[in-house]
Amino acid sequence: MLHPKRDFSGKRRYSTAELDEFRARSARPRVSPAPRPRPEIDGAVAAAAFAMLAADRGLRDVVLELKIRPDDAADLRRRYVEFGAEMLLGPAELDELRELLVWQGTTSRSLVAAVKKELRRHYEIGLEVGAQKPDEDETHSEEGKKVNGEREKIHTGS
To answer: CB of 94 within 8 A of CB of 111?
Structure first.
């Protein structure tokens, strides 16, 4: 129970300590509504979604064609990946990677190995090109400097 005191104008004033205690006693725990259970996806619907994902169809197509919720389509895609589809690249993308990387593999592990090999090759080429650059000191030495690709003697005032 609160014990107010009247101030000079007659208004009731309460102690902050009493108010804090009152709030603590009367506070109700916030209860969030229980999540509604989502209906289970039928096995036939899941199989159809997996077939569509294997055919490189997008999640929008899965939702529209199978008339399922987007969250369910996303869950099915995640499960599809977990259940063994190692790459979610379409045939056109895989062909392009095979051409760019001279890669004939079928697994994500072999694709990563091919990418690493190609990146390493480009890195080594970059190192070779960097080694062929002339030193700064050589191009700005007293003997001469490059002008329009040719060496020119620097004339000193002697």
So the answer is: no
Give Cα separations from 141 to 4, 115, 126 (angstroms).
92, 43, 26
Here the tokens at position 109 are 């592990």
Q: Choose among 26, 41, 23, 119: nearest CA to 80.
A: 41
pLDDT score, position 142: 47
Cα(63)–Cα(70) distance, integer angstroms: 6
Q: Tokens 């099915």 correspond to what residue?
A: 76
Residue with token string 């599809």: 80
Give mean pLDDT, residues 67-88.
83
pTM of the shown model = 0.37
The DSSP string of 80-136 is HHHTT------HHHHHHHHHHHT----SHHHHHHHHHHHHHHHHHHHHHHHHHSPPH
